[in-house]
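Possible regression after last week's pipeline update?

I re-ran a chain I had predicted before the update to compare outputs. Posting the input and the new output here so someone can diff against the archived version. Not blocking, just want to make sure nothing changed silently.
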Amino acid sequence: MKKNSKEAIIQAAISLFNTKGFHATSIRDISTKANVNVANIAYYFENKHGLLEYCLTSFFEQYLTEIEAAMDILEEDPIACLKKVSKNILSFQCNNIHFTRFILREMSIDSQVVREIMSTYYVKEKYFLKKILEKGMQKKVMKPHSMAYLMIQFKGMLTMPFLNTQYVTEVLHVFPHERFFEEKYLQEIYQWIDGVLGLNAFITEKKAVNR
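New output (post-update):
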């Protein structure tokens, strides 16, 4: 058994699931691309669904780690904390673009494993984001907003370029795999945070309306 056969299987699966889709990819396809015996896949993951579950869990554990890494500055500055969360998530997704595309597509399908992920990892993500927003409003550095709709907008910005890559590249001519994209798009997210959430922008808007 190859020393790195498990990692080779994972990388082959991510590549094939991303290009061919989960259902169109066979165990034989994965073993051929990974250059391992089919028995190796059964040894590590039992079957293709076990491999899928492993990929989902691995992705979201790393994803949550990136969010948690930003929480150390929450008490000091909730706005900066949310920006750090944005930077960490965007960097993680750009550095794992094929993995991200495959996972986000899979999460759009109603299945038992997806519901389990939502009831665990997405609930944890909601907890962290809600904590940031509540702290920002409590400290009066963020405008009062509906939590649910803010999260929809925030997650929409972070997922859209990866979930709809064909539209982004072919229609908008924006290329998420390029380094420039990460730098430019992060600034766009920061502008949304400052403009939509920032209290200073809120005060400016009120003054303009009252003139």
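Follow-up from reviewer: compared with the archived run. The chain has two domains: 1-46, 55-210. Marking as no regression found.
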